[in-house]
Amino acid sequence: MPARSRYRTINETLRAHFGEKVSKISVDGGMSCPNLDGTISSEGCIYCLNGSHYGKNSIRALSVREQILNGIDYIRNVKPEMNKFIAYFQAYSNTYADTDYLKKIYEEALSIDRIVGLSIATRPDCLDKEKIELLKTISQKKYLWLELGLESMHNKTLTAINRGHTFETFREAVIMAQEAGIQVCAHTILYLPGEKRKDILQTAAALAELRVEGVKLHHLHILKGTKLYNTHQSGNVFLPTLQEYVQTVVDFIEYLPPDTVIHRVAGDAPKELLVAPDWSGNKLRIINEVKKELKSRGSYQGKRYGAY
Questions:
Q1: Homologous superfamily, domain 10-297
Q2: How far is CA 134 from CA 47, 71, 99, 107, 137, in A?
Q3: pLDDT score recorded for residue 4
């Protein structure tokens, strides 16, 4: 168990790697999503509200360089001690474009002073050997995370939320990336419609077996304007209490390998769009409750690794 934390956080990992605190800057690379443009579907995932979770500096009218420079200025105005940043390609699916275009925008980001690495969020069905080779080349020179949306390992759930890909597609993408030496961070959403604690921990076990290098845990948000909002209004969506969510997060962490980096234990949502759960607007509180539960159990990441 680490001396500083009962689970391995991304902040501690970045500080250990770079010798100081590193901040992310959200970037919009101008891409779309095959689950929105009609390639797979035009409806998207049932919880998705296009653009609702993107940062203040993700403005498509600006170039990647302009977005990043604005982001650096914004952060340094508040925290002038910040010197190193990661460009986070967050909006939509950030390998869903021609490889030459991807190379151009990734290199544009990395050419900027103070940018020390990239984090690239995408879908597992938006990768191929050519794109993996590009990411491999970058990762051999710069710090890189490939963030892959999974949400759940259960294909029944993926169908229900209109995800548009299977767990097998995700697994193939992870293996392809890992064989190229690329760090993978898996995105999951806890308490998706129809899932109980047992189902969620099966996802934890599947990710542990794949030995993904990182994991993001999100709680299910109900946002105005989404399909899920309509279902919630009909009273047909179960949402856990804060304590139920925290207990499941700690269970999840216990089943992960000790060296997996936990990028998040809770998600963010715009307050003006957030409908439920009522406890989800205070992310710091959720983090503190997770730490409190770990301490109360005398537990830590990896305690039950391999036991599921």
A1: Aldolase class I (3.20.20.70)
A2: 31, 25, 8, 11, 5
A3: 60
